[in-house]
């Protein structure tokens, strides 16, 4: 019995399913999850002392690589001064300023004020409450297969037909709460038009991922988010752009920055951030124009609070990470993504495995389908059974992939030639395993 097996047995006795977040349990790939004991640069080490090239990056935060000395030093220095004050600090002011400064492109500055929270779930939950408070309306439009954290109204599943109110997507969500959400297929502007026609004056906001990365990666149709902004505004509703995953990862100004530099300009009303912005510590944020953000308490009537909000250690990690996230870092990660995606497609093609590698900036995923899935319905049609053997062959070869075919692969600034070489070397065996599944 390995130490991972031993720990998983113990864990299942004291933690539901042995994990503190479901996807960690290897449910869709089978086997024992790796219990990690340390991470450095592009590598993670499990409880058995085995080292892997990591393509999970803590599900996104580790943009500049794990445990970067400058980030660790910043956190240590902050810890020496106090773990939590429950009072405002200078660091929070700096971080809010850095976020606002970075999220600028094409002459637009959609973020004037920022509220710091602790998780992406809190950021989107607050964004929705804010949108409701600003508009005085209740309904929310979201896209099937887009994930925005686990608050009740965002765990709604599509009902039957397009313009119908949603059903609970999980046990424990009241039907009445789910019914405040309208779920439409991703990329389908006609469906959005229909819900607006049916419910327009009741819709507070449309929420969408900057670029979807929780149903596999999906490249938004050209100008899609700009069209959504226009449709939302035409209906008197807000556009909430969820950049918890894409923010400061796919571009220095997030998916929004990437999109307005390469397509029509648009301004979301609220943008949510997480993952990279906290550099691996619990921190997330929402930002927008002053006129909207000041509806939050204490300036406005929309209540929101947090004992650990703007925690000084998290703020220190976020500041150090964003300082290190230079244009060179994005160029490096993009080039690393070129290397991995071309080796991946060669290996799978050599084995005759039908596949697509959808990509947005340096963010990419793998789909066992003959084209990049455009929405969740299509993503679910792929030959997903090929992923578990592929995943386990990579793991056996020392590469840690996300344990689900519907997750993105995350590269970091620390993925150098050696780390990339290790990935490239293992791909042919994994492609063979996928082919024989
Ligand atoms: N929004 C998006 C787009 C996400 O990818 C996630 C998490 N993967 C969240 C929100 C929720 O963030 P958290 O897990 O920090 O609550």
TrEMBL record:
Class in the EC hierarchy, top level: isomerase
Q: Which InterPro entries match?
A: 4pyrrol_synth_GluAld_NH2Trfase, Aminotrans_3, PyrdxlP-dep_Trfase, PyrdxlP-dep_Trfase_major, PyrdxlP-dep_Trfase_small
Pathway(s) served: Porphyrin-containing compound metabolism; protoporphyrin-IX biosynthesis; 5-aminolevulinate from L-glutamyl-tRNA(Glu): step 2/2
The molecular function terms in GO held by this entry are: glutamate-1-semialdehyde 2,1-aminomutase activity
Question: Which cofactor(s) does the record list?
Answer: pyridoxal 5'-phosphate
Q: Which CDD domains match?
A: OAT_like (cd00610)
Q: Where in the cell is it found?
A: Cytoplasm
- Chemical reaction(s) catalysed: (S)-4-amino-5-oxopentanoate = 5-aminolevulinate
EC code:
5.4.3.8
What are the protein's UniProt keywords? Cytoplasm, Isomerase, Porphyrin biosynthesis, Pyridoxal phosphate
Modification sites for N6-(pyridoxal phosphate)lysine: 275
Broad class of the protein's primary localization: cytoplasm
- List the Gene3D superfamilies hit by this protein, alphabetically: Aspartate Aminotransferase, domain 1 (3.90.1150.10), Type I PLP-dependent aspartate aminotransferase-like (Major domain) (3.40.640.10)
SUPFAM superfamilies, A to Z: PLP-dependent transferases
> Could you name the domain of life of the organism this protein comes from?
Bacteria
Q: Name one Pfam family in it.
A: Aminotran_3
Q: Does the UniProt entry include the keyword Zinc?
A: no
Which PANTHER family does the record cross-reference, listed alphabetically? Answer: GLUTAMATE-1-SEMIALDEHYDE 2,1-AMINOMUTASE, GLUTAMATE-1-SEMIALDEHYDE 2,1-AMINOMUTASE 1, CHLOROPLASTIC-RELATED
The family database entries (HAMAP family) matched by this protein are listed as:
HemL_aminotrans_3
Q: How does it assemble?
A: Homodimer.
| Family as reported in the entry's similarity comment | Belongs to the class-III pyridoxal-phosphate-dependent aminotransferase family. HemL subfamily.
In its UniProt entry, what is this protein called?
Glutamate-1-semialdehyde 2,1-aminomutase
Which species?
Microbacterium amylolyticum
Phylogenetic placement of the source organism: Bacteria, Bacillati, Actinomycetota, Actinomycetes, Micrococcales
Q: Gene name on record?
A: hemL
């Amino acid at each position: 019995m390995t130490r991972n097996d031993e720990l998983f047995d113990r864990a299942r006795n004291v933690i539901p399913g042995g994990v503190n977040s479901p996807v960690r349990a290897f449910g869709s790939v089978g086997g024992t999850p790796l219990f990690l004991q340390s991470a450095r640069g592009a590598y993670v080490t499990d409880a058995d002392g085995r080292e892997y090239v990591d393509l999970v990056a803590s599900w996104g935060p580790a943009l500049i690589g794990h445990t970067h000395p400058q980030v660790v030093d910043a956190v240590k220095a902050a810890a020496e001064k106090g773990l939590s004050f429950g009072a405002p600090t200078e660091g929070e002011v700096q971080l809010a300023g850095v976020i606002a400064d970075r999220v600028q492109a094409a002459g637009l500055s959609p973020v004037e004020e920022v509220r710091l929270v602790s998780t992406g779930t809190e950021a989107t939950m607050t964004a929705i409450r804010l949108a409701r408070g600003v508009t005085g309306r209740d309904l929310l439009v979201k896209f099937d297969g887009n994930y925005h954290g686990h608050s009740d109204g965002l765990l709604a599943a599509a009902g039957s037909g397009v313009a119908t109110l949603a059903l609970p997507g999980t046990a424990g969500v009241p039907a009445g709460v789910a019914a405040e959400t309208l779920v439409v297929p991703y990329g389908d502007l006609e469906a959005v038009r229909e819900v607006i026609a049916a419910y327009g004056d009741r819709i507070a906001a449309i929420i969408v991922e900057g670029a979807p990365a929780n149903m596999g990666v999906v490249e938004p149709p050209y100008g899609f988010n700009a069209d959504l902004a226009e449709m939302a505004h035409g209906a008197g509703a807000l556009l909430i752009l969820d950049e918890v995953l894409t923010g400061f990862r796919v571009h220095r100004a997030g998916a929004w920055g990437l999109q307005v530099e390469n397509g029509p300009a648009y301004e979301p009303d609220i943008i949510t951030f997480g993952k990279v912005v906290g550099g691996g510590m619990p921190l997330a944020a929402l930002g927008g124009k002053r006129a909207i953000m000041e509806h939050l308490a204490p300036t406005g009537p929309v209540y929101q609070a947090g004992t650990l909000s703007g925690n000084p250690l998290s703020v220190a990690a976020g500041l150090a990470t964003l300082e290190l996230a230079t244009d060179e870092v994005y160029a490096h990660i993009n080039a690393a993504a070129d290397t991995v995606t071309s080796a991946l497609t060669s290996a799978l093609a050599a084995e005759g495995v039908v596949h697509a590698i959808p990509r947005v900036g340096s963010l990419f995923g793998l789909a066992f389908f003959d084209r990049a899935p455009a929405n969740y319905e299509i993503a679910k049609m792929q030959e997903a059974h090929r992923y578990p053997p592929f995943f386990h062959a990579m793991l056996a070869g020392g590469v840690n992939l996300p344990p689900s075919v519907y997750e993105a692969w995350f590269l970091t600034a620390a993925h150098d030639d050696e780390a990339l070489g290790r990935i490239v070397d293992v791909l042919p065996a994994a492609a063979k395993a996928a082919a024989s599944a």
